[in-house]
Amino acid sequence: MKSNYITKNKIGLLALCLILGQVLLAQKNDEIQLRKIYDAALTQGKSYDWLNHLSNQIGGRLSGSVQAQQAVDYTKAELDALGLDQVWLQPVMVPKWVRGTPEFAYFETDPGITTNVPITALGGSVPTPPKGLKAKVIEVQSIEELDVLGADNIAGKIVFFNRPMDASHINTFDAYSGSVDQRGSGAKEAGKFGALGVIVRSMNLRLDDFPHTGGLSYGDTPLNERIPAAAISTNAAELLSATLKLNPEISFYFKQNCKQLDDVQSFNVIGEIKGSTHPDEIIVVGGHLDSWDLGDGSHDDGAGCVQSMEVLRLFKEIGYTPKRTIRVVLFMNEENGLRGGKKYAEVAQKNNENHIFALESDSGGFTPRGFSFDSSEADFKRVESWKPLLEPYQVSMLVKGGSGADIGPLKNDTIVLAGLKPDSQRYFDHHHSDNDRFEHVNKRELELGAAAMTSLIYLFDVYGIDGAVK
Amino acid sequence: MKSNYITKNKIGLLALCLILGQVLLAQKNDEIQLRKIYDAALTQGKSYDWLNHLSNQIGGRLSGSVQAQQAVDYTKAELDALGLDQVWLQPVMVPKWVRGTPEFAYFETDPGITTNVPITALGGSVPTPPKGLKAKVIEVQSIEELDVLGADNIAGKIVFFNRPMDASHINTFDAYSGSVDQRGSGAKEAGKFGALGVIVRSMNLRLDDFPHTGGLSYGDTPLNERIPAAAISTNAAELLSATLKLNPEISFYFKQNCKQLDDVQSFNVIGEIKGSTHPDEIIVVGGHLDSWDLGDGSHDDGAGCVQSMEVLRLFKEIGYTPKRTIRVVLFMNEENGLRGGKKYAEVAQKNNENHIFALESDSGGFTPRGFSFDSSEADFKRVESWKPLLEPYQVSMLVKGGSGADIGPLKNDTIVLAGLKPDSQRYFDHHHSDNDRFEHVNKRELELGAAAMTSLIYLFDVYGIDGAVK
Q1: Does residue A237 belong to any structural domain of this protein?
Q2: CA of A167 to nearest chain B CA: how many angstroms apart?
């Protein structure tokens, strides 16, 4: 009996050793794969060249524009050249808003004494009358303040929303969230009090001369009651505010002839590597291909697009065969409609596709710090167990939170959604302005983001998801 | 007995509660202080204005130059204005190397067919002959390769060191360490084989047109055997290398009339707040005031200087009274001599001063990621216990490693030395070149560094060091 007991123990020990050995081997293998990914990304990366073309040969890619279509054609051709298993265009109708001739604005301190102001129409705004709009200005710090002031103080005037982004936030996206209601809803709310127009301090933490555009919503305001809205640069906002303190009677003039046209045909650009063992489990990586028309949309979100393309290219480059289906999706129309994201989710549901993980990069091409996860507790724990693998690459800041606007519509009880979290400090220096330019993207920072994304997708490909209900 | 037992237990419990309460209270208090520091740094920061003056009004501050003296005067005056307990200049003799007229270089593919090359003399180099130096070029990848080639292949030629920084490193300082021997020792080593001069590929991970200078050492090479050395831009290095592959017979010409003059008088700039309860325990925070003469030295190391000044100003701003003596030291001559750092340590030792902690910022004014520590195990553990306090500010990457060149001479068995670790990706785009300019410093990134430094110094001030022997 004794020898039998020992034998049993020996077998147990052997089994334990085998299991432990396999775990260690798997971990070692993951380490090797991540190192391969980073080596390839940093020494033979393609994302920067792609972004160069997208930014400098095509430029700003507002939904429905010629440039947006050029971006569709270009990225499709580049994905075709990667030798993926399938590349296709997914049709989607998108809104077409056009800026028209460049906007013009000034404030007038005395008759004929004017100071020009850098200005940009907000995306979706109605135009001013053809000759422009001139009125007295009332400065407010918030939408709530409109209620306090009431129609008596607002009617017939231009409302100037001037609450700055709060610089004390560490994550600049929190500062953005705390101020962007002025841009998004200012016109809708001020219009209720009889304002003739709205100007908003640009969503920018710096003091400079770039006006930053961005979407607004009129909600259900009838078309004929909508008032024009525009953003002025932070320097101009400071100057206007200081001038108003000296003389509240000054008037502001702006002219814009932007226009909402009928929806037009556009596309999401999609490519995939079929999974070798679980082809029905789909992992999506993406960014949005459209951008605003100011600047060239390098950070928002050319960077996210080329990084997502790079994920699939890097798998090819290092000779990794994914077990699950890896799909890159370049979404159209994130900026002013989210039609691409909605369409993709709609088609996925119609086709009964099983998406287990989706990752979006839409926070700029800066040094990656980690990822944000919208997942079950069990899946977040699994992600946290990968921390030691990510730490050598300085991308181990793993937090719970949002993912990305375009992949949001894929949300269900089990899918893991994630967003790349690059360092956020410089993002709003560029966001939605003529200052979002290729020269402000650092090649290594962009490549590190692509490598981090590829690493995370590799890990999800190898280990899948827990799939616990959220 | 029983009631007594209970009473004892109650007292024990009470004591435990009190201790625990105090710990929690202290932790809460630390959280509040750090938040105050960050709020002040991000909303009422002064470092960016100081850097603006240092960079745009004074500019590059090579040791012994007029600009270096202007920087001494300016920072002393600014420290005086802060109302510190003491501000003084510490005299130190520094080497004075001057660049002379701008360097000039080309390579010649056929007689009279030349291509100009962006070039800069290496700091400390001897000049070329007055009419310049023209010779055939031999390209090498390493100092070791010189031995293989031998004098037969090297004598009478210009040696071209062209090993690039290795882009696969995540921390770019590792890539720098792996290549900088070519700049530092290339001339000394190539001279032994009869080379007439040395050109080095710039220490830069990007391909661009900026040549990057930096110090070299001739070791004990006699003065008359020293050969001139210069750096060429990475783009020029690529072009020259490609051209040499087509035609190894091309010649290279460069002219520089740089010169080593006699040592001159300069100063470390020092200011301090006396400790309220442990005035004899000194905490130093610093950067180096000198820079190379190309660019304006904003990242290297204007940033570290103004961040260090900001530490003391922030304590004043939030009304914090340090228990220990907090001293800011702006070291002179880090770049080509380290005389300031050596002098400071020498005087400290002579005066029997007890330095418990020294922190240097000399890795650029980029988003801070954490700190590197040279300390006993016990002190590193103590630092790690502060991680939860640092995590909300995204500066919790605490690693063992080097600190800073200027504070190195303070090293002893018990002192804790530390270096700020900013994100390293962009540092070598600027380092030692005309591209190190104020416009490449982001205000928030600079301020976050100052706040992180102030937070760490606050914690050392409150808790002191363990002081275990290393």
Answers
A1: yes
A2: 6
Q: Domain of A220: which CATH number?
A: 3.50.30.30
Residues of A in contact with B170 (CB under 8 A): 38, 392-394, 448
Domain end marker among A257, A292, A319 = A257
Domain assignment present for B18? no
Contacts of B234 in chain A (CB under 8 A): none
- If asked whether residues B240 and B355 sit together in one domain, one would say no
pLDDT truncated to tens, each residue of chain A (470 aa)? 445 555 667 777 777 777 778 878 888 999 999 999 999 999 999 999 999 999 999 999 999 999 999 999 999 999 999 999 999 999 999 999 999 999 999 999 999 999 999 999 999 999 999 999 999 999 999 999 999 999 999 999 999 999 999 999 999 999 999 999 999 999 999 999 999 999 999 999 999 999 999 999 999 999 999 999 999 999 999 999 999 999 999 999 999 999 999 999 999 999 999 999 999 999 999 999 999 999 999 999 999 999 999 999 999 999 999 999 999 999 999 999 999 999 999 999 999 999 999 999 999 999 999 999 999 999 999 999 999 999 999 999 999 999 999 999 999 999 999 999 999 999 999 999 999 999 999 999 999 999 999 999 999 999 999 987 77
Greatest Cα pair distance, chain B, in angstroms, is 109
Q: Is A448 close to B170, i.e. CB distance below 8 A?
A: yes
- Best of B34, B42, B172 to substitute, by most chain A Cβ atoms within 10 angstroms, is B42
Cβ within 8 Å, pair A43-B168:
yes
Helices A181-191, A144-154: axis angle to 10 degrees equals: 40
- Statement to judge: residues A76 and A63 lie in one domain: yes
Interchain CB distance below 8 Å, A42 and B167: yes
Q: Which tokens is B461 given? A: 């001030």
Q: Tell whether B177 and B276 lie within a shared domain.
A: no
Interface test with A, best of B235, B396, B399, B423 (most A CBs within 10 A): B423
Structural domain that includes position B284: 35-97+262-463
Hey, which residues of B are catalytic here? 334
Q: Side chain identity at B371, as an amino acid letter?
A: F
When divided into structural domains, chain A yields a total of 2
Instruction: With CB atoms and an 8 Å threshold, state whether B394 touches A397.
Output: yes
Q: Which of A334, A360, A445, A447 is catalytic?
A: A334
- A35–chain B nearest CA distance, Å: 9
* CA B57 to mean position of chain CA atoms: 21
Phi, psi values for residue B141, rounded to 5°? -105, -10
In a domain, A130, yes or no: yes
Q: Is residue B225 domain-shared with residue B197, that is, in the same domain?
A: yes
Nearest-CA neighbor of A196 among A144, A117, A129, A108?
A129
Q: Token pair 């303190």 is at which residue? A: A245
Whether the complex's predicted ipTM is more than 0.90 is answered with: yes
Q: Which chain B residue's Cα is nearest to A35?
A: B168
Greatest extent of chain A over all pairs of C-alpha atoms, in Å:
110
Residue A398 covered by a domain: yes
A376 and A325 share one domain: yes
DSSP assignment, residue B123? B
Q: What is the DSSP letter of A215?
A: B
B444–A39 CB contact, under 8 Å: no
Exposure string over A284-308, b if 16+ CB within 10 A, otherwise e: bbbbbbbbbbbbbbbbbbbbbbbbb
**Amino acid letter for position B87:** V
Closest by Cβ to B392, choosing from A167, A170, A429: A170
In this structure, the answer to whether residues B320 and B406 fall within a common structural domain is yes
